[in-house]
Design a protein that fits this description.
By secondary structure, this protein is mainly alpha-helical. Helix content is 39%, strand content 6%. The chain has five helices and two strands. It is globular, with a radius of gyration of 19 Å.
Length: 136
Amino acid sequence: MIDQPAHDQGERTPTGAELTALDPMFRTDPHPVLARLRRDEPVHYDAVINRWVLTRHDDVERVLRDRTMSLDPHKANEGTYMRLFLPPPGQAANMLFSDPPDHTRLRALVNKAFTRARSSAWRPASAGSSASCSTR
């Protein structure tokens, strides 16, 4: 892997951690890197992490609507990026990485806790927690 952040790489296509929040420049402002990818290689195969990176809205939407695709890391091929998200043995799967109908059922359960009224009620506590974290 190259030691320099993605923004300092000239026209070389960023890959691996350079396309994640692990890269300080990408974390600060991912837009220039993503704009270049969208222009030069909108469907990018990242061989470092063994994943596909899509940068165009229509491509992302098509994949998200394709029911043959999966978010479940149990269904991911060995050695792929999604396998990193397998829960430890004995731990329940995360609803963010579950597919319908499990995701739909779990989302219906938690939606009750995230109504506008309930979210507004959390505002003072979350503001206090945010302030506390920012002063550390």
